[in-house]
Amino acid sequence: MTGKTALILAAIIVIGGGVFLADKMKKPETGDKTSVTEVTEEATVAEVIEEPEAAEETEVAEVAEVAEVAEVAEETTIIEDTDAGFLNYDIIIGDTDAPVEIIEYAAISCPHCARFHEDVYPILKKKYLDTGKAKLVYRNFIFDNPFDVFAASLTRCVSEADFFPTVEIYFQNQRDWNKLQDLKRIFDADGREAAIKYAQTEVASAGAAAGISEDAARKCYENEAVVNYLLQVRQKAVEKYSVTSTPTVIVNGKKLEHNDIASIEKAIGNAIK
Question: Of 67, 89, 91, 119, which has the fewest Cβ atoms less than 10 A away?
Answer without folding.
Answer: 119
